[in-house]
Amino acid sequence: MEKLQAHFTKVLNLLNIKLFRILLFLTLGIIMFFAMYSNVKPEKLDLTLFSVAEQTIRSPITIEDKVNTEREKQEAVDQVQDVYIVKKEYAQNQVDLITSIFDTVSEVNNEIKAEMNEKANEETADSGQTTAAGTLDEKLKRLKDKLTEEVTKELSDQPFTAMLQSSANELSIAKDLTVTAVNNVMSKRIPADEVENAKKRVEEELKYTSLNSGLKNAIITLGRFAVIQNEFYDPNATEELRQQAIDSVEPVKILEGQIIVEEGKLISRDVYEQLKLAGLLESDSSFKPFAGLMMIIAIILAALFFIFDEMDRTEKRQKQLLIFSLIFVMALFIMKLISLFTEYGYSEAGYVFPAAMGAMLIKILVDERLALFQTVILGICGSIIFNQGIAGTLNVMVAIYIVASGLAGIIFLQKQNQRSKILQAGLFVSVVNLLIIISLVLLRNSQYSGLDYGFYVVVAFLSGISSAVLTIGLLPFFEAGFGVLSTIKLIELSNPNHPLLRKILTEAPGTYHHSVMVANLAESACEAIGGNGLLARVGCYYHDIGKTKRPQFFIENQMNIENPHDKLPPLTSKNIIIAHATDGADMLRKHKMPKEIVDIAEQHHGTTLLKYFYHKAKQNGADVKEADFRYPGPKAKTKEIAVIGIADSVEAAVRSMSRPTPEQIEGLVRNIIADRLQDGQLSDCDITLKELETVAFTLCETLKGIFHSRIEYPEITKQKVKQA
User: Fold this and answer.
1) DSSP 334-376
2) I need a surface site. Which of 67, 587, 657, 717 has the fewest CB within 10 A?
3) What's the pLDDT at 660?
4) CA-CA distance, 403 to 662, in Å (whole number)?
5) Residues 177-204: pLDDT tens digits?
6) What are phi and psi of 385, to 5 degrees?
7) Predicted confidence band of residue 132 (pLDDT cuts 50, 70, 90)
8) Under a CB-based contact definition with an 8 Å cutoff, are residues 548 and 541 in contact?
9) Buried (b) or exposed (e) across 673-705, using 16+ Cβ within 10 A?
């Protein structure tokens, strides 16, 4: 194990170099690419027209079938009827035309009548007969002059002659009858092929009038002439309807995952064209899926690099990066291994994947944020790896399942940090897995048998329990191999039954009580500044383990005995007191305690001065140097150790005070912090002045709660009860 840790240390040292970190990320990218390569590689099939498909073929992409789309558009256009409109104004125009003809006839008759009255006295009876005949010809000629050329060409002289020979009353009746008949017929649709029928309807309507035969024939002729086509083809409206029909046609698409041809079916020409359109017949492999995969991997690695680059540039960051990478690769390998079963028809194999394993390991060993990040990455990878062999598709349901399962593990372990709780977390994950699977199945709205639901119950619990078992099994290897001090490990070390804690309790009970008090102070102060409060608490339990070597030489253990330092020279006392830090570190190393706990025991005093024995030595007249009465150090390297050192001094100082007031406590705390600052004891850690102010406030509040005022009860004088 020591050799293994040595190798890990060398790797961690290499990761301090930026080039090697980049190489690690590139390695992760290459592993991810080859893990998902086969799942995005376009499938090429050797198929011929009119052959029989040897397997069911699905489309790897969603693409528009333009040929069928155009065909459906043309069918939609062909179904559109031509648009014809009725020009209602034509009826009024023809009515006005008939009215105008009758008015012109009346006008001509009136003109001729006036002229005849002027010549009435000059003409003889014989001449009168000649004049009457001449007048009819003149009327007809004058009438034609007044009418349009179109009317005179279309109509013969007969109707005009009959009208000119009729009386004004007869013309009025004929006019009304003709106008009414024309209006009735023209108010209805008259397409081109119905004009003759419309003319016949006018003729039928006028045939049964009481007019004389000549005038009746005249108005029938006029009525037939007046009826014309009033329904015409509208190209603009027709084109608009055709365009609407085209727009209403949805593009015909071959959907991703859609079955193009089933096994044993004939590959018809349409099917062959769809296969060609989906790119399944192309001989050259497309680079697009691989480019897309590389872009996804690049985005993931960029986010990962950004997250780790934000962390403190310490050995811890390199260790977390290596742990994250190993767990991720391990989870990816398991995922790829399980995906091989999909090739044998087990399409739901993705639900067996222990999705919560990686999340729980990262949560325990590294960080909750990184656990969430890895869960999302595994969800993305799972959606590609478990795509059921359909290149280019994403199995969204498996991705949701993996993310939900990982989140369930992280949430359960958020406050349950004991190792024994991991199995309970696995059961909790199993229940969440089952709920997620059932919800996804219901979303499909498909029919499932009882056997199917039974299968889902089994895989859900198998995934959750296997996640817990793998986490429990792998956790010790990571903790030992990387020297990781996980939350679970810290809680185990805080168990009072731990041999070293029992040693302190039995051999130095005063020191044990002091350690517990310091732990309470340090934990609250560390949490107030964003430090690891649990590490501070557990570290405090062991920070004075070295005092068990000579417990009676420390004041908290001197119960009803004389102080041995009163009989020792200051230099000897100094050596005994200072030795507890180095002795404690040696004892912790001997018991294979985590490095963080060893550092707390070794560094919590830093290089502070043993002022009491230093001044005692000077008072005795000895020629001493201040450096000889300082702890060997090193100084505190982390915030937690700095806070523990302050809390240790504060607790000891306050305990020595009689009835401390809040003002005295605050003054004491601030003096100790100021002394540490001036002595340079905080120069090697990254604690800020603002954080020190927070530490001072928190320590004061905690101490005020411990040393709050109490009621003094009067001493009860025991009196003897006299017997009567």
Assistant:
1) HHHHHHGGGGGT-TTGGGGS-HHHHHHHHHHHT-HHHHHHHHH
2) 717
3) 85
4) 51
5) 999 999 999 888 899 888 899 999 998 8
6) -65, -35
7) very low
8) no
9) beebeeeebbebbebeeebbebbbebbbebbee
- Give the 3-state secondary structure of residue 231: strand
- How far CA 139 is from CA of 146, 170, 214, 607, in Å, comes to 11, 17, 17, 143
- DSSP run (H or E) holding 472: helix 450-482
- Residue 110's DSSP bridge partners are none
CB contact at 8 A, 186 and 97: no
Q: How many distinct helices (H) and strands (E) make up the chain?
A: 29, 6
User: What does the DSSP 8-state code read for residue 15?
Assistant: H
> What is the token pair recorded at 52?
């029989």
| 572: helix, strand or coil | helix
Say what angle helices 125-146 and 89-118 make with each other, to 10 degrees: 150
Predicted TM-score (pTM) of this structure = 0.60
User: How far, in Å, CA of 117 to CA of 672, rounded?
Assistant: 146
Residue that has been written with the tokens 């349009």 in this structure? 148
Instruction: Please answer whether residues 534 and 490 qualify as being in contact, where contact means their C-beta atoms are separated by less than 8 angstroms.
Output: yes
Q: Which amino acid is at 239?
A: E
CB atoms within 10 A of CB 99: 15
* Residue 249 one-letter amino acid: V
Looking at residue 711, what is its pLDDT? 45
Residues in Cβ contact with 349 at an 8 Å cutoff, skipping those fewer than 6 apart:
338, 339, 341, 342, 386
What angle (nearest 5°) sits at the alpha carbon of residue 172, between those of residues 169 and 176? 145
Q: Distance between CA 215 and CA 171 in Å, rounded?
A: 8
C-alpha 283/C-alpha 12 separation (Å) is 47
Three-class secondary structure assignment of 475-499 = HHHHHHHHCCCCHHHHHHHCCCCCH
SS (H, E, C) 80-106: CCCCEEECCHHHHHHHHHHHHHHHHHH
Hey, what are 543's tokens? 């920070």
Asked if 401 and 433 count as a contact pair (C-beta separation under 8 A), the reply is yes
| Tokens (6 digits) for 492 | 């185990």
Q: At which residue do the structure tokens 């790119």 appear?
A: 279
Q: Is 630 helix (H, G, I), strand (E, B) or coil?
A: strand
